[in-house]
Amino acid sequence: MAKTDILIIGGGPAGVTCALTARKNYPDKEIVLVRDREKSIIPCGIPYIFNRLNSAEDDILPDKILEDNDIKLLIQKAVEILIDNKKVRFDNGEEIEYEKLVLATGSEPVFIPIKGVDKKGVFVIKKDLNYLKELREAVLEARNIVIIGGGFIGVEVAEEISRIKGKNISIVERASHCLETNFDEEFTKVVEEKLKEKGVKLYTGKVVEEIEGRKKVEYVRLDTKEKLPCDLVLLSIGARPNIQLAKTAGIKVVERGGIWVDEYLRTNIGDIFAVGDCAQTKDFFTRKDVPIMLASTACHEARIAGSNLYKIQNLKENKGTLGAFSTSILGLGLGAAGMTEKIAKKEKFDYVVGKAKVVNRHPGKLPGAESIFIKLIFLAGSEGYLLGGEVMGPESIGETINIISLLIQQKMSAFDLQSLQISTHPLLTASPISYPLIVAAQDAIKKMRDRF
Q1: How does pLDDT run across 212-223, given as a tens digit for each residue?
Q2: pTM of the full structure
Q3: Topology given in CATH for the domain delimited by 122-237
Q4: Parallel/antiparallel/unpaired status of strands 95-97 and 87-90
Q5: Which of the four CATH numbers 3.30.390.30, 3.30.160.20, 3.40.50.300, 3.40.50.920 does domain 332-451 have?
Q6: How open is the CA angle 106-125-129, to the nearest 5 degrees?
């Protein structure tokens, strides 16, 4: 039987980040990372294996970073946590004793219980290299492709495949708009128009009743009785936390959620932590459980856990997720962090909206000039705290949403943003006269004053 100081189960972004953070904070500790596959996939890169990447192998997370940081890698499947003995047992019967255990077991795709879902030609998004190689080959061979689910992965996969000639792509989404969970309508409508211009057919507000076909998929039948011909169906309707290992061991889990954790990602069992998709996620503002599974969120949690395994030395505890998202659809960059207006209204926050539409160069005749639209949600009243923001424009707005995320975490207000000190340059940013964050904040302040 082997023994280690820190044992991490899971080789995705959360597991690797936790291992690297632990190494920086505890240089004398032995660290072992265990995963059940030979190769680890970069989850956010999966939509791009069909065209922009030359193969599924191009989306592998390199193991060299573990080797360079003296982190031992073990390819085994963990089957049991022996809490009383502080050991983990693997499917080959071997055991490892630990001082600290981190569960980074990730998530698994959701299958919807519809007739025909088990037919040949139906795929999901799995973080498994061999499965993705098979999916890539099937996509390249297929002509008619139906994607069930218009969230980030579904839309990004549709956009990627639309770049390949001869593909007839349809998205079926039960909500009124694609990306409706993450963006307000001003943004989702623009994305949908982009997809339509590229030939992607959208069936929003509709549900798949059956996947039809003899030996393999041939049609998808909707609740409207429409029948969409297809050679391949891709289910992209979300994922659920992979909590079976924890649950079997008696570690506390949240009903219809992940593994229960405190602000330092500690479970209810001493010396056991949980990070990433498998861990419970709470909203930054409401503290309600939210089903957000992002690599960026996972890495944030992993850094907190990795810093505080042996002692609380990082007081930047996990206060909840802002759900900071970004994506690129046919050259259009979109980002969101914190509350959308729709969520603020649903949660009964008293809020005001500030908007700005500016050009990202000055003067606007410069090459590369494109429009930026920004929408900020502020708490109404004297405090005017920033609750959330959405932005769309050129792909460079990915960093703008990161700035918005930081402003929210630092409890910045519309009044703070109005006096923000910034750097500008004609080739790099909007004009200092009409910098989008400042203009949107000023718009919100005007509305506050009009109200009061």
Answers
A1: 999 899 999 999
A2: 0.92
A3: FAD/NAD(P)-binding domain (3.50.50)
A4: antiparallel
A5: 3.30.390.30
A6: 80
